[in-house]
Amino acid sequence: MSRRLDRRAFLETGSATALLCAVGGAKLENVSLKDVEEADRAAADLTRAKRAQATGNDSVDKLTFGTPEPQPGGRKREYWIQARPATWNFAPTGRDEWMDKAIRGRRSFRAFTYQLFSDGFARALLPPLIPGPTLEAEVGDTLVVHFRNADTKFKQAVTLHPHGVKYTPDYDGSYYGDFTRAGGFVAPGEEFTYTFECPEDSVGVWPYHDHGPNHTLNTFRGLFGGIIVRPRGASKPDVERVLFLHSFPPQVTGGIPRLIHCVNGRSAAGNTPTIRAKAGQEVALHVIGGDGNFHTFHIHGHRWKDSGGGGFTDCPTLGPNETITARFREDNPGRWLYHCHVFSHQDAGMAGWYLVDP
Predict the structure, then answer these.
(1) Judging by DSSP bridges, how do beta strands 282-289 and 323-329 pair with one another?
(2) β-sheet bridge partners, residue 194
(3) By the 8 A CB rule, do 112 and 157 touch?
(4) Around Cβ 292, how many Cβ atoms within 10 Å?
(5) pLDDT tens across 30-75, in order?
């Protein structure tokens, strides 16, 4: 018989506590596949909390909020995104082109992905991807994300929680136990529409990710993506990519016996994104830390103005959910390598090709 858990019971299960504290971090060795299975069962059994504004004792829990509209001159930019499990191959070519060697052993596992659809979820525009679709807007716009939980494997509530943009508690997309609002618990088969505002201080590149009751594990499985907010009327660079530096631990891959270091869900040059540019083009590579580790980002033969302030750089650091941007005017044709310069990460697959035509 299935047992239903409240927030406290979920957190008090040993596996849930271990996962929330340890997956991807220094205590990773303390989490077993059995722990993961138990945490998944606990999350699947978790019941929806009562609405906070009806049950909370604090006055803030009784507040109500409207749905924001675009500012004058702004637009409503709509996306239809579903979360669904998918079989994911982290090295489709089976080779590391940089080291000219085969990648042996099992390369596929059950991931959790965001997938882009056309209006009204009429048809899939892209296959399930890691990271999910990049959301783009300008200052004064609203980002309206119609979100559907299409999970048939894990049977867990998931969400879409953004960084960098402005939102009310209704659109936080975060599980708060007894204080959870509707957008913080989207059960399998349910839909919810998030509305995010893009004020001037949202200009930049930001991550979004699951923040449901089992968010640590499901984010590591692949539920993350990027947001780009530009100044009103700003032009796009000629070449622009969002790159997540992240990893798939054995507890996520179902026992593949090593930590899989990735760029955008793929591992090793020839599988990770190959980026192409031409001399004279403006290039912007937005790099986001997508796990619990410290990373750096380096492109051979190039340097750029440090987006964090200061002078020029060619190997800036970034931590979890932190973004740096490598932006420059291309002037150096050839085949170049980009990679994390934490040596154990680059050697385990966190590297790719940057190809520049004259």
Answers:
(1) antiparallel
(2) 145
(3) no
(4) 19
(5) 788 889 999 999 999 998 765 555 556 799 999 999 999 999 999 9
